Amino acid sequence: MKVGTRDGSAGDVEHGAIGAAGAPGRRPDTRIARFIAEALAGTRTVLNVGAGAGSYESAARAVTAVEPSGSMRARRPPRLRRAVDAMAEDLPFADDEFDGAMTLFSVHQWGDVTAGLRGMRRVTSGPVVVLTCDPKRVRDFWLYEYAPEVLDIEARRYPSVEEMAGALGGTGTVQTVPIPLDCTDGFNEAYYGRPEMLLDPAARQACSAWSFIDDGARERFDDRLRHDLASGAWDERFGHLRTQETYEGSLVIVRAAP
User: Fold this and answer.
1) Torsion angle, alpha carbons of 142, 144, 146, 148, to 10
2) pLDDT per residue over 103-116, tens digit each?
């Protein structure tokens, strides 16, 4: 089981130190937001667990946010309601208190995913929506040839789709979320057709997995990608992605109805 960090973060990342979810590169993408809104269609009161700074909360109508990290709660803009200081595994709400619930880019940092999802199911009368990455597909991305350590870490951190569906019970669906070429949300696959962006340390910092590798691995990634971009080797293999409107990678929505 993962342990909490000094700033109150529930899992293996101290957001106060790396600032991943609050970095400039992590701006909610309106097209991804539409998929979340569609998954929550028909709900009015929505619980957002692991809410961070409030990205994508516009996809729901009336949101109650839960966020255990003090540094992330402090980053929520004034227009959003204050977040409740609690963890997914111990939600301070009554059974069926919410019409719907969501957790976005968060489950891989929870201490006990099964307990957290069961808690969300308990307090929700309608759909529970999880935006996450399918670990079986994480290594399919071209980045694996340049920074395998990063994607190996990602694949280990993310719970399986089957594990999440089982914890939520009921009737579940899994939907791949297409990532647009000009995606504004700076997770790794958002740069599928813009490899130069990942040479920027600030862009990499927005994705927490990079914080787990050492300087040597970062230098090897930087050197090899720069070389392949300069020589044309990257474009020879992956150049078609520069004009591909969307990319269907590991990003998925797991939706469970009661």
Assistant:
1) 170
2) 999 999 999 999 99
